[in-house]
């Protein structure tokens, strides 16, 4: 029945992908397309396919490959790539976090750096994909790293020259805050308050 196609969290999964080596075969193809595709369209399609495959694979089957996936995606985001590919890469990282959770804890610093870089992008869709990534990252990070992230977002909002960019950072602050299990430190809260005080109300 259809219940067999859902994991404990109600996520749709394909049992075939949990068979030994099955996911690895797809991963090799999509990673090659993502990193070495001869056209931009091919790289974008490979990234979307990778994201969709991750979302339909059980966490236990993904476990041996999560580090490789995250590393490849982070490296690609560091290249000069199209806005669409940036958006797709950030989406694939968010899906990896949603699926793998604490299994990606070791990558928290690099993931935070990647998402914060995405927040600075000129393209609105890229910025919003980065916000989703930060939100997915919160459950994986220790409180001290979350404080650092919120402080960075608040400082960027305070120093933003354009209102739309400032609002993106403040939306990012909001999405991180709603995922927290405990309030941020007083020092961090002070930076958030300072950023909010700079809102243009007129």
Structure description:
It is built from 10 helices and no strands. It has helices at residues 22-36, 40-55, 59-62, 66-77, 83-100, 108-119, 124-137, 143-159, 163-177, 186-197. Helix 1 (22-36) runs parallel beside helix 4. The longest helix is centred in the middle third of the chain and has 18 residues, at 83-100. It is globular and about 55 Å long. 37% of the residues are buried. The model has no long low-confidence stretch (mean pLDDT 90).
Which tags fit this structure?
202 residues, 0% strand, globular, 67% helix, mainly alpha, 10 helices, single chain
Task: Describe the SSE topology.
Layout: H1 22-36, H2 40-55, H3 59-62, H4 66-77, H5 83-100, H6 108-119, H7 124-137, H8 143-159, H9 163-177, H10 186-197
Helix pairs in contact: 1-2, 1-4, 2-5, 4-5, 5-7, 6-7, 7-9, 8-9, 8-10
């Amino acid at each position: 029945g259809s219940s067999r196609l859902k994991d404990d969290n109600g996520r749709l999964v394909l049992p075939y992908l949990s068979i030994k080596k099955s996911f690895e075969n797809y991963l090799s193809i999509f990673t090659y397309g993502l990193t070495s595709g001869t056209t931009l369209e091919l790289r974008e399609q490979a990234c979307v396919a990778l994201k969709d495959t991750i979302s339909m694979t059980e966490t236990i089957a993904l476990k041996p490959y999560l580090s490789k996936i995250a590393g490849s995606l982070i490296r690609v985001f560091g290249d000069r790539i199209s806005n669409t590919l940036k958006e797709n890469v950030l989406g694939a990282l968010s899906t990896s976090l949603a699926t793998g959770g604490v299994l990606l804890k070791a990558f928290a610093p690099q993931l935070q750096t990647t998402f914060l870089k995405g927040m600075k992008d000129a393209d609105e869709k890229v910025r919003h994909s980065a916000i989703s990534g930060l939100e997915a990252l919160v459950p994986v990070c220790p409180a001290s790293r979350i404080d650092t992230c919120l402080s960075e977002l608040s400082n960027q909002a305070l120093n933003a020259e354009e209102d739309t960019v400032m609002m993106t950072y403040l939306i990012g602050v909001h999405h991180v805050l709603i995922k927290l299990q405990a309030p941020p430190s007083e020092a961090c809260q002070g930076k958030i308050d300072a950023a909010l005080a700079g809102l243009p109300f007129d």
